[in-house]
Amino acid sequence: MALTGIQIYKLLPKTNCGECGVPTCLAFAMSLAAGKAELAACPYVTEESKAELADASAPPIRIVEIGAGERKLKMGGETVLFRHEKTFLHPTGIAVLVTDEMAEDEVAGRLERFKTLEYERVGLTLKADLVAVKSLSGDAGKFSALATKVKNQTDGGIILMTEDAAVMEAGLKACGDCKPLMYAATKENADAMSALAKEHGCVLTVKGDGLDEVSELTTRLTAAGLNDLVIDTGARAPRKVFEDQIFIRRAALLKKNKALGFPTICLPCEMTDDFMKETLMASMCVAKYGGIVLLSDLQGHSLFPLLLARMNIYTDPQRPMATSPGIYEIGGPSENSPVLVTSNFSLTYFIVSGEIETSRVPAWLIIVDTEGLSVLTAWAAGKFVGDVVGAAIKKCAIAEKINHKKVVIPGYAAAILGDLEEELGSDWEVLVGPRESAHIPAYLKEWKA
Ligand code: SF4
């Protein structure tokens, strides 16, 4: 049972020192009970209290980490059922399958697509995360060789897939230092797989025939001291997968069911032979709580929409996406090039910079910090007004890069013209640009320093 705020408070030092970021121990206790703070933020909790509080401070779905180094994938830690309540924390890992019975050129093609299919969107690089190495032959040598190839040729996370402990051990010898996800422990091999997971410090997938069997296995493994687990309920029919994913999330969050408080893996690659249907099922699993989705292959026309869906679901709905303020050079501008100014809402930045590129007129683009708000909203909120924009123009020192003193503001912000001229001084000329960014190319072609 989770502790209440008052129960937690009784275990805190009660010195109200404020080092945890809130002014009192009581406020910290309330935040901890609500899952909005981490116990580590208080440096003064005694070891005894820590042990008692660990239960209260642990997220209902355990956080596990797959991989090592820069491409480490975090899963779990989620605290809400719907993204509009707060935010989903750790985006679904997207994985591609290779097997030890595939032809070499097929494996090479999948690894090549894994490395090269990446997309830039609102300043983020979107790409797949993991390669799943599956033993179909049951041959430890072939499995180990394939795991070594994947480790040497990619920098992604690895999933080792076999239910034979001897084959798994060979795979772990090849790439155990990359901390792969082991798939999978079943009721038949759980003890042997658990021993390997402990020896190599890897996360272990628990695969059962339904929720009851999975719960029994996770309870057995955690009692044996293995806590970093991932769940596969064994369901492959889309409706059953959907139901299981929702049941697991609700059980962990609403019922505090510890046996199901782990991230999940979904296998759309085993749900259909139709590649487009597989993509649809993968998108369902991204939307409904899949920690990892395993695809049979990566193709741009299916991967890109999946990555976009994931990005949209896992962005914080309460925090607009923002671009860093400053000067952006587009197309190699010179001292005679036009200077435009806009807000740091990412979508605004990408649309405006895209239209400038389309115009083929090199330009300077000054991005003002509007806390991620678009031009009109920022203007209404007092974040894109004359003195703020003027201060941003002065701070970025654009005057040292150009030999004219003209700046173009968005048409929707025409109302700030007078204030901005006053802020910049009489030697500056403020021009009102188009309202719609689609008209920027035509406007720039007419522009003269
Ligand atoms: S850091 Fe610890 S002792 Fe200090 S106010 Fe926070 S909870 Fe209390």
Overview of the structural elements:
- The chain has 449 residues and is an alpha/beta fold.
- Strands 10-9-8-7-6-3-12-11 form an 8-stranded parallel sheet.
- It has helices at 5-11, 25-33, 47-57, 104-116, 140-153, 165-175, 190-200, 211-223, 238-254, 275-287, 300-313, 346-359, 375-380, 386-395, 417-424, 440-446; strands spanning 64-66, 73-75, 93-99, 118-121, 124-127, 130-134, 157-161, 181-185, 204-207, 229-232, 265-266, 292-295, 326-330, 339-343, 363-368, 406-409, 429-432.
- Helices cover 40% and strands 16% of the residues.
- Bound molecules: iron/sulfur cluster (SF4).
- Iron/sulfur cluster (SF4) binds next to α2.
Feature tags:
449 residues; alpha/beta; 3-stranded mixed sheet; 17 strands; globular; binds iron/sulfur cluster
Strand order of the largest sheet: 10-9-8-7-6-3-12-11
Q: Ends: how far apart?
A: 70 Å
Oligomer: single chain
Ions, cofactors and other ligands present here are: iron/sulfur cluster
- Estimate the strand proportion: 15-25%
Q: Biggest β-sheet, characterized?
A: 8 strands, parallel
In round numbers, the mean pLDDT is: 93
**How many E-type strands?**
17
Q: Which class of secondary structure composition applies to the elements?
A: alpha/beta
Task: Output the number of helix runs.
Answer: 16
Overall outline: globular
* Percentage of residues assigned to helices: 25-40%
Spatial extent as radius of gyration: 27 Å
Ranges where pLDDT stays below 50 over 5 or more residues in a row are none
